[in-house]
Amino acid sequence: MARPARALLVGLAVVGAGIVVAALRVNQYVYFAGYVVLQYVVIATAWNILGGYAGYVNFGTPAFFALGAYTAVFLIQSTRAPLPVLILAGGLVSALLGLGIGYLTLRLRGVFFSIATLALSIVLQTMIINWEYVGGSRGLSVIRPSGPPFGSYVTFLFTVMVLLSVVAVTVARFIERSWIGRGLAALRDNEEAAECMGVPTLRLKLFATTVSGFLLGVAGAPFPYYVTFVEPNSAFNLDYAVNALAMPMIGGTTNWLGPVIGAMLLGTAQQLATVTISSEMNLFIVGVVLVAFVVLAPEGILGLVRRLRGR
Amino acid sequence: MAGTLLEVDGLTKRFGGFTALHRVSLSVRAGERFGLIGPNGSGKTTLINCVSGVLAADGGRILFEGRDITTLAAHRRTRLGIVRSFQIPKPFSSMTVRENLGIPLEYAAHARSQAGDADAEAAEILRTIGLEAKAHLRPAELTQIEMRKLELARAMAARPTLLISDEAMAGLSSVEVDDILALLFRLNEQGITIVMIEHIMRAVMRFSERVVVLDAGERIAEGTPAEIVRNPAVEKAYLGE
After folding, report:
1. Does residue B204 contact residue B214 with C-beta atoms inside 8 Å?
2. According to the model, what pLDDT value does residue A1 have?
3. Contact assignment for A195 to B102 by CB distance below 8 Å
4. Which of A123, A291, B12, B234 has its CA 20 to 30 Å from the CA of residue A143?
5. Percentage of chain B surpassing pLDDT 90?
6. Which B residues, 175 through 214, put their C-beta within 8 Å of a C-beta on chain A?
């Protein structure tokens, strides 16, 4: 009883801290960049539920993210639904896509699953390009609701992303420590052996793809209001696929803290590089760091710390 | 038939145009030590893959404790008490030996009966099998025979009624074979029905009360070990004419 209570307290404290930072009304850039870093906390955490816990590497992160974003665009266009509805709807639609790719795991494993998810992203992007109502290939301008809290909509979205990060991390942590997480680890190690030891592998995989999809969609839903101009190339950006995979790998995939550390470090480094050097440095940094980690510390920063502290 | 635990009735399995099993029938009695032998490629592993649910049969029925389980998912069969070990050990490599046992304890044994003390049960199984000193090692740190023992320990943790041991002794020295054999005898004394698939004739003949021989996907003989070694059809299958 004491432990979940403490986790809840920490979560609330983080949300509280986010609101305090927002209320300080410092330089707008801090919220602008902070939003992106936190968005990557959600994305990396969501990706890790499937990629890290279950061992199914998803290259289709842009599809889920963009589906969340475009669900929001559709609802803004049609009903001007409030932000919480957009987030929930974006999550649910992406969860449905997640359930779909969950059934793919029946036939596709390993690298073939990854290729299929990459293809999914391209197919979905083509569909969006040809859908005029949500802007098609030209894109669409979105007008933010007026009178946001904290005086600026970006600051408000920053606090929303703080909350979403806390929710995503809490969900991941709960899964990891429950019987679900242990079952996922078993099927990651050996799916056939897991099934023969009583683990309902299909049901657990469907759960993982659905939850992962939901959180990726949730991360994408506020995106239209953040950028105010949505077009397929930015929503389906390959950066999301690369970062979603690189961040957990760098932090460590077997623990909920791994993607958080990875997203914080890499996300911040990218934001700093964008303003100080050039926006093209983003992926270069990811590439170099990822190669270094895969070679030198395949279990990420957490693995490195464990190794230094242990034997 | 009273006392029949597992009944395989006319089981057929095809891989494309190749018939791996052709109308194979056999029945295993409760508490029995049952041997399944046959030359390489005769369909032994295919048969137990069908029984454990890893493969779906193309024809025939499988009954366990009188219940038709032909279309049941593998994990559901494990929960019913049909547990198998793998020819090539398939441990959960990211977990310790103790954690490896935790999976079947949590998902099979305790899914069936009320939750027990998993730690105590795991410790007891590891003691029985002689792995208690290795409880906190990872599978990569184990020797060949320890790996085989882990495979059996993990199967035991699922609390089987029927244990299918798929070549648990391949590649072991004769002392190690005796070691595993003694373990299987002890499990049988505890009331677990055991189906042994084995290439080491000395082991399977000593262990089994009844033996079924497969050749090219068909059942060619059944009997006590003594009858089997005198059977001309078996001799022909193994040695040719």
Report:
1. no
2. 44
3. no
4. A123
5. 46
6. none
Q: What is the mean pLDDT of residues B69-91?
A: 92
By C-alpha distance, the chain A residue nearest B154 is A197
The two structure tokens encoding residue B194: 């055991």
Fold of the domain built from segment(s) B1-81+161-241: Rossmann fold (3.40.50)
**Count of other CB atoms within 10 angstroms of residue A305:** 14
This model of the complex carries an ipTM of 0.89
Q: What angle do CA A251, A257, A263 make, to 5 degrees?
A: 50
Provide mean pLDDT across the span B58-78: 92
Contact between A199 and B103 using a beta-carbon 8 Å cutoff: yes
What is the domain partition of chain B in residue ranges? 1-81+161-241, 90-159
Going through B101-198 in order, the beta strands assigned E by DSSP cover 162-166, 193-197
Query: What is the interface size between A and B, counted as CB pairs within 8 Å?
Result: 74
**Reported confidence tier of residue B155, pLDDT bands at 50, 70, 90:** very high
Would you call A182 and B108 a contact, using CB atoms and an 8 Å cutoff? no
pLDDT confidence of A273, banded at 50, 70, 90? Answer: confident
Query: Distance between terminal CA atoms of chain B?
Result: 37
Using an 8 Å CB-CB cutoff, list chain A residues near B74: 195-196
The pLDDT-based confidence of A59 (bands split at 50, 70, 90) is very high
- Assigned token pair, B49: 């893959």
User: What is the C-alpha to C-alpha distance for residues A240 and A250, in angstroms, rounded to an integer?
Assistant: 15
Residue among B75, B83, B91 whose CB faces A200 most closely: B75
Looking at beta carbons, which residues of chain A come within 8 Å of B91?
Answer: 189-190, 193
| DSSP code for A131 | -
Q: Which residues 152-181 of chain B have a CB within 8 Å of chain A? A: 154, 158
